[in-house]
Amino acid sequence: MLFVPLLVIIFLLAAPVSANVVNLTADEQAWLEQHPKIRIAGDPDYAPFEFRNSRGELMGISQDILGYCLDVLAIELVEVPTHSWKQAQDHLNAGTADLLTVASQTTQRDRYLTFSQPYLYLPVVILTRNDINRQLSLEDLYGLTLITVYGFGVNEYLEQFSDKINLVYARSTAEALQKLSFGSVDAMLLNLGTASYQIQALKLTNLQVSGEIDYTYQLAFAVRSELSPLIPILDKVLAAMPPGQKQQFISKWISLEQGLWRPSKYQTLVTIAIISALGFALMCALYLSLNRTLTAQNKALEQKSLLLEKEIEERKLLEIQLKEQVFQDDLTGLANRRKLLERVALEWPRSLRASRPISILMLDLDHFKIINDSFGHDIGDKVLKSTSSILQDSTRITDLVARWGGEEFVLMLPETGHDLAIEIAERIREKVAATELAFQDNKITFTISIGVATTENGEPSFTELLSISDMALYQSKEQGRNRVSSIII
After folding, report:
1. Which stretches are transmembrane (predicted)?
2. Pair 22, 112 in one domain
3. What residues make up the domain containing 185?
């Protein structure tokens, strides 16, 4: 099973105070009066965002959000029957339907559709079987067979790698996941929300998240171009949705706590008491036979209980592992870029309100490519791990150390002024320069260059301060490497 804290990866758009105030122009109101019905072509295979239940009804998060919008606008929804996502798109293209609910904007779709502002953001992850023990990027899939589903928005992005990746298509998400589980393909790309929901529903216990790609689904409403006046109207309703309303729709379909029933001690005692009472009543006639039966039943119950407890432990372990995969760099154990950005979203406003200093350190190993080329990638990995240990040992519990990518690291140091940040950076530089790694009969040494940027009042933004620290790092490189340069704002 796959367990994911999905509220971490589904970013909600900001909403004003109340949905009771949707300021429509006279032209917009007139347009709604002229279009009291909207035909929707749904995706039957995109759970939990949109799918058909056992009665063939469209359900899911996106349907709930759309239903809310249409209730506000007093528009009647008319469903056009569909059996695949591709058929839903074909209906829009042919003009036999008006609206798609779970659309991502692509160059091809822009030719005949108009899109609302996104209402959900869904990162795309790399799914593999659980025999992979390292974090993957898209480049790691070169030469492998990657499966996706016909009509998915990420397919247009993947076409630029068609000469490097063997891309195959499935008719549904379930079919693609089952082929991956059975070993017919090497990997699959899917948004994290659908991956968690479908893998649990299909009981595919041998699949895992092994990385992510630089692509994010931005789910939006899409209408045929001739119905484009509906888009600004929908945008106004989405913007006026009350705080927490969208969260309620998500929580209805996605639960952070995946419950599993197991008998309580009381229930177990009651069951044993009932069995014992029945056994006592029949003891005179069936003592020997019943004794054997009860023994067998108890053993079977114990085995089932043990299996149940084992499955629960495995699920908890998988949940912990998945959280680590989402927020932790696989090689060094440091926080990854996603974790850093999440921490920034919390720390930066606090620093701004309190007018407290904050420093950013951008670090880059010097001549790292030469190390890899001369001694091999195993030594390169040891250099990265050794550097990561030094960074962790040289910082405080309130600081955040993250691997930014490749041989680059970023340190965020709250409550840290310019002088203290320089002191920390110099201490790190000296420790790295003094480190020696054994290779055959040689000792390998390496150095690091550091750029420091400090703000005393929470301004400028994190992105701007990160860029300034990168400029300072460039100065260190230009001045001969193995040094610290700084810029204070």
Report:
1. 269-290
2. yes
3. 121-218
Between CA 68 and CA 243 the distance in angstroms is: 14
Residues 397 and 314 in one domain: no
Q: How far is CA 286 from CA 271, 282, 300, in A?
A: 20, 6, 21
Residues 258-293 have pLDDT tens digits of: 433 334 343 344 446 555 555 555 565 566 666 666
Nearest to 59 by CA among 252, 201, 221: 252
Counts for the chain of helices (H) and strands (E), in that order: 15, 20
Segments of 19-112 assigned E as strands = 37-41, 45-46, 50-52, 58-59, 76-80, 99-103
Per-residue pLDDT tens for 389-429? 999 999 988 898 999 988 999 999 988 999 999 999 999 99
Quick one: the chain helix, strand, coil %, rounded to 5? Answer: 45, 25, 30
In the chain, the number of structural domains is: 4
Give the tokens for residue 167. 């891309």
Q: How many CB atoms lie within 10 A of CB 194?
A: 22
Query: DSSP readout, 248-283?
Result: HHHHHH--SS-------HHHHHHHHHHHHHHHHHTH
87 and 134 housed in the same domain? no
CA atoms of 46 and 200, how far apart (whole Å):
14
What is the CA 278 to chain-centroid distance, rounded?
53
Same domain, 111 and 152: no
Whether 191 contacts 104, CB under 8 Å: no
- What is the token pair recorded at 149? 């589903």
In whole angstroms, what is the distance from residue 233 CA to residue 203 CA? 41
Q: Give residue 345's identity as a one-letter amino acid code.
A: A
pLDDT tens per residue, range 329-345: 889 989 888 888 888 88
